[in-house]
């Protein structure tokens, strides 16, 4: 279980966070990886997925416990596409605490701000949690064999959605700056100094 009193902070992932994403996906129990990768639990599939991410176009929002990535929401879209595909993973200790819902809400905001008009969530047909999350946002669900496909139709962007994402981006930047160590000139009595 997550330690009492601990919280996740939300910030975006950038290319240098690929290792944290790989580690998060590797920590998932096989059953959850199978749910994420539609029937394939093998860790190599997760590694291949991370290697293939188009970091310029994808939006990945993490739920971080300090420096450890505990949950992630991914929005992938092709060049010029008005359609995107979303996926969410939350480590077991953090499930059923609203994290998946929060990540999906943020992904929809990101989709709105990029003119994405349809967000598809693919899952196994027996994935009741994803189905519940998608239904909460008005997602239309189609079942095909053992899989289900929920389509969300985000509204156009507003000043409020742009502002919400902008705040998230500032938080991401601030978190990065905090990690940068700046050498202090010799003779100042200190060798290293945190930027913020
Ligand atoms: C699916 C997943 C992302 C959900 O994350 P989460 O943090 O547990 O989600 P939340 O706590 O925000 O919400 C879960 C919702 O499902 C509901 N739920 C939980 N168990 C349920 C069940 N057995 N049947 C129906 N609904 C259920 C919860 O009540 C909640 O809905 P509510 O907020 O309206 O009450 C997480 O379980 C996960 O990572 N699963 C493995 C990977 C996966 O399946 N990814 C999805 C592929 S796209």
Note down, in words, how this protein is organized.
By secondary structure, this protein is of the alpha+beta class. The chain is built from six helices and nine strands, in the order E-H-H-H-E-E-E-H-E-H-E-E-H-E-E. It has helices spanning 18-27, 30-36, 43-51, 99-113, 128-136, 159-179, and strands spanning 9-12, 59-65, 68-77, 83-90, 118-124, 140-144, 147-152, 181-183, 192-194. The strands form two sheets. It has a seven-stranded mixed β-sheet with strand order 1-2-3-4-5-7-6, sandwiched between helices. A two-stranded antiparallel sheet has the order 8-9. Helix 1 packs antiparallel against helix 3 (43-51) and helix 4 crosses helix 6 (159-179).
How many strand units? 9
Radius of gyration: 18 Å
CATH architecture classification name: 3-Layer(aba) Sandwich
- Under CATH, the topology can be stated as Aminopeptidase
What ligands are attached or bound here? Answer: coenzyme A
Task: Going across the biggest sheet, name each strand in turn.
Answer: 1-2-3-4-5-7-6
Broad CATH class: Alpha Beta
Give me the number of helical elements. Answer: 6
Q: How far apart are the termini?
A: 31 Å
Determine the strand fraction and express it as a percent band.
25-35%
N-to-C series of helices and strands:
EHHHEEEHEHEEHEE
- Multimerization status: single chain
Overall structural domain count: 1
Low-confidence stretches: none
Shape: globular
Helical fraction equals 25-40%
Main β-sheet description: 7 strands, mixed
